[in-house]
TrEMBL record:
GO molecular function (one): scavenger receptor activity
Record-given protein name: EGF-like domain-containing protein
Residues in coiled coil: none
Record's keyword terms, sorted: EGF-like domain, Membrane, Transmembrane, Transmembrane helix
Transmembrane spans: 333-356
Annotated SMART domains: EGF (SM00181)
Signal sequence annotation: none
InterPro entries documented for this protein: EGF (IPR000742), LE_dom (IPR002049), MEGF10/SREC1/2-like (IPR042635)
Cited PANTHER family: EGF-LIKE DOMAIN-CONTAINING PROTEIN, SCAVENGER RECEPTOR CLASS F
Any Pfam family the entry gives: EGF_laminin
Domain EGF-like span(s) in chain numbering: 1-32, 46-75, 77-105, 106-137, 139-169, 171-202, 216-245, 247-275
């Protein structure tokens, strides 16, 4: 098979030599290898420009490196401490003064006097300001005053204002005067700012709360409030709520529960918070008792009007029994019917008595005349006693009505 590098894939039948020469980047009599500047299976990859005298056609490794570079592809730089370049494969070289180890690496600039151990690179005279550890590769905390810290462990010599701790990574309390605190413990050096308290000035005094201790506890708090949220520990008498900003019910006997507002009621008040009158009391202060003439002794709390109507002396017991058996909402209708019945009965009795009384008076007035007529009528075979019988019946009815009236009066007294 002719080489893929032959132009037109054409080659001598006997030897295989390319008849028309090689394609670009290919070389050799049989065009079966790359030229000195290319590599790869198709000779399309270019050798590193740091290669000297080209590269291997199979993998691109440089045959040699330009001065100052090393590595298989000549892509690494020799140390600046080397006198004349370095070995192509190891990077080792002859060192200038002040450089150390086989690769002549310079001592770090941050080593004091740029002097270090030539075997391990440790800075022999410590680090410049702001650095620490053996080869000065670690930075001192920015919270160290002037960035000064221990060469061996990085502990700050002194902290900037407002910081404490070995690495000055903790903040003094905002309650410290001048934001100044002990370097090790964090205790405020000059005491607390106004309204702050505690050894570390990290909490508010008993009448202030967070976050700046400028907010004042409610005037209704007793013994101050919680510094984290201002909730009262306890309330003055008559107030309740977490901030003691709610008023206990007007009927509470002695204050109320701080959370719920529940309390023991004075006489005349009712429910858990004592904010309304008992059924048998009324008035702004629930100190007036409902009229004894109110049905069941109850009335409206705002004006004392009987809420179940007034007692009916004749029908009261009957109404009470009916109310017990029926829905309580019908008691007003029964009461009204009973009152109308009482009034109607009394009016009928009164009218009837007046009627019979007037007629009896007429009968007595006519009796002498009727006796004369009787004597005349006897001679004429008439019925002279009819009028007398009528009058007698009226008088009997009148007596019955009077007895009924006395009975009614008796029932009213019993009621």
């Amino acid at each position: 098979m002719c080489s893929p590098g032959c132009v037109s894939q054409s080659c001598d039948r006997q030897s295989g030599a390319c008849s028309d020469g090689c394609r670009p980047y290919w070389a050799g009599e049989y065009c079966d290898t790359c030229d000195s500047s290319h590599y790869g299976p198709t000779c399309s990859e270019t050798c590193s420009f740091n290669c000297n005298n080209g590269c291997r056609p199979d993998n691109g490794d440089c045959l040699d490196c330009v001065e100052g570079m090393f590595g298989s592809k000549c892509n690494k730089t020799c140390s600046t401490g080397c006198v004349y370049g370095c070995d192509q494969f190891t990077g080792q070289c002859t060192c200038k003064q002040g450089s150390q180890n086989d690769s002549c690496v310079d001592c770090p600039d941050i080593c004091n006097n740029q002097i270090c151990d030539k075997l391990n690179g440790y800075c022999l005279f410590g680090c410049q300001t702001g650095y620490w550890d053996l080869n000065c590769s670690s930075s001192c905390s920015e919270n160290c005053l002037s960035r000064n810290c221990s060469f061996s462990n990085g502990t700050c010599d002194t902290c900037i204002r407002g910081r404490y701790g070995d690495k000055c990574d903790k903040m003094c309390s905002p309650g410290c005067v001048s934001q100044s605190c002990d370097r090790h413990s964090g205790a405020c050096s000059d005491g607390c700012r106004p309204y702050w308290a505690g050894e570390y000035c990290d909490t508010c005094n008993s009448y202030r709360y967070w976050p700046t201790c400028l907010d004042t506890c409610s005037i209704n708090c007793t013994n101050g409030c919680r510094p984290e949220n201002g909730d009262c520990y306890a309330c003055v008498e008559g107030m309740f709520g977490i901030k003691c900003n709610k008023t206990c019910g007007p009927g509470c006997l002695t204050g109320c529960d701080q959370i719920t507002g529940h309390c023991t009621c004075k006489q005349g008040w009712q429910n858990d918070t004592c904010v309304e009158c008992s059924p048998d009391y009324y008035g702004v202060f629930c100190n007036k008792q409902c009229s004894p003439n109110c049905n069941r002794g109850t009335c409206f709390g705002n004006n004392g009007t009987c809420d179940r109507g007034c007692k009916c002396n004749i029908m009261e017991e009957l109404i009470a029994q009916v109310q017990h058996l029926q829905n309580i909402n019908s008691h007003h209708i029964l009461h009204a019917v009973s009152v109308l019945f009482c009034l109607s009965l009394m009016i009928n009795i009164f009218v009837s008595i007046r009627y019979f009384k007037n007629n009896i008076y007429k009968c007595k007035k006519e009796q002498p005349r009727q006796h004369e007529k009787k004597s005349r009528a006897s001679t004429n075979n008439e019925n002279p006693d009819q009028f007398i019988y009528d009058c007698a019946e009226m008088e009997i009815d009148y007596q019955n009505l009077s007895e009924l009236r006395r009975s009614q009066h008796h029932y009213e007294q019993l009621g």
